[in-house]
Amino acid sequence: MMQDVHQLRCTGCARVIALDALKENLRCPECGDLYEVEYPAWSVQSAADSATRPVKRNLPNPSALRWLWKERRTSTELKDQSGVWRFRDLLPILADESNIISLREGNTPLYELPRCAQATGVERLYAKHQGMNPTGSFKDAGMTAALSVAHERGFEWVACASTGNTSAAMAAYAARAGMRSLVLIPEGKIAWGKLSQALDYGALTCQLRTDFDGCVRVLSEVVRRAPVYLLNSVNPYRIEGQKTPALEIAEQLDWQVPDHLIVPGGNLANSSALGKAFLEMKHLGLTDRVPRVSIVQAEGANPLYRSMQANGGRELTAVEAHTRASAIRIGNPASWRKAVKVVEATGGWVEQATEAEIALAKAEIGAEGIGCEPASAVTLVGLKKLLAAGRIDPSESVVLLLTGHTLKDSDYTIQYHRGDLLREEELAPLRPEIEITRRNTVELDADPDQVLRALEKAGRQ
Ligand SMILES: *Cc1c(COP(=O)(O)O)cnc(C)c1O
Ligand SMILES: [Zn+2]
């Protein structure tokens, strides 16, 4: 029975609810906070109160799990080929595994970043590239989990408000399941690549005359009045799927966790999920410690950064969000309390990045032959700042979590290289660094001599 395997606990008042009591806006009716999935047999939170509420504890064997997860990579079964469901032992959220809806997400590469390592002085620097997922962002890992739950519970419609990537992922997985999807996006403020995906995968896509936070407000009313299943990251099952990149990172580093993990912060679900995973892995004896998880926001969309500065993360004041990194243009992040707990539990920090810093960092990651979305590049900015502040030592190992694929927002990249992305006053502090990374197109006649002269000139640079 699935009730025995997982339960839902409010992260605010600790109340445990029945699985079918999770309704509508997915928030606790008592305190308004978000729910978290836990597994009475083994999870961290239930260990804390097993003294008062005896449960049969049944901790899985870590070396058997490591072996099993590796073995599954050679299987031809869908649930084994998925980099999310390969780890299903740590996310047993379905009553019946035949309800899995998967696009073979996950199993993303962990790249070395030799040039960025050299430039920053860090010896071991890696990028976990979640942009290499089926729809081009980390959202697929959470979506396969939560949409499979929606499918199992018999919903016809799923819905989300999105800065773009969630809608692309939701629309794709809904299409695979033969379900319908409703997308609310802020008008004129999402990258074309992402919008095109939602249309291609057949979503009912509504552009609302408001920002992301306004879309969230409208959607919470819609789910109250219509039988649609909410797939925003307030959905605790998305968090379960989004744990798996942390398991992959540990596996890819031979179960030696890195010293630091740096994650972009928007709605703050991703950092919450990765922190949950690392804490669970340590608790189960899969790893012997946790990395410090640090979060980086854009300066124009920095409510968590401000909250940490002003009151150590006890209260958060929403801001009106402005940044070209549209995936993290969020002023009122839903999962901020979960994120604060992760930063505290792991000893991480919260940083912010200016528009020029983000643009430069994105070009530097691009020059490694990898590329990423603007929002992902805040992680490299965070690394530079944490090094400068002495919070990361160059001898430590660092993983940057790259959240989205570079082709998601090619307009941004082209504007950068043409020199018309940033305003004068934004550019000024970093002009020389940015100038040497710019690679605009060279317009020539159809003449070999002109191409040879261009080649010679480039060779001298
Ligand atoms: C959604 C998204 C983020 C922000 O993740 P949160 O979980 O909302 O903090 C960052 N980068 C990309 C590319 C995204 O799609
Ligand atoms: Zn509560």
TrEMBL record:
GO biological process, one term: threonine biosynthetic process
Domain Rhodanese: 160-201
Protein origin, superkingdom: Bacteria
Residues annotated with N6-(pyridoxal phosphate)lysine modification: K139
Keyword Nucleotide-binding: no
GO molecular function list: threonine synthase activity
Enzyme Commission numbers on file: 4.2.3.1
Cofactor annotation: pyridoxal 5'-phosphate
Principal EC category: lyase
Keywords of this entry: Lyase, Pyridoxal phosphate
Similarity-based family: Belongs to the threonine synthase family.
NCBIfam families xrefs: thrC
Protein name (database record): Threonine synthase
Lineage: Bacteria, Pseudomonadati, Acidobacteriota, Terriglobia, Terriglobales
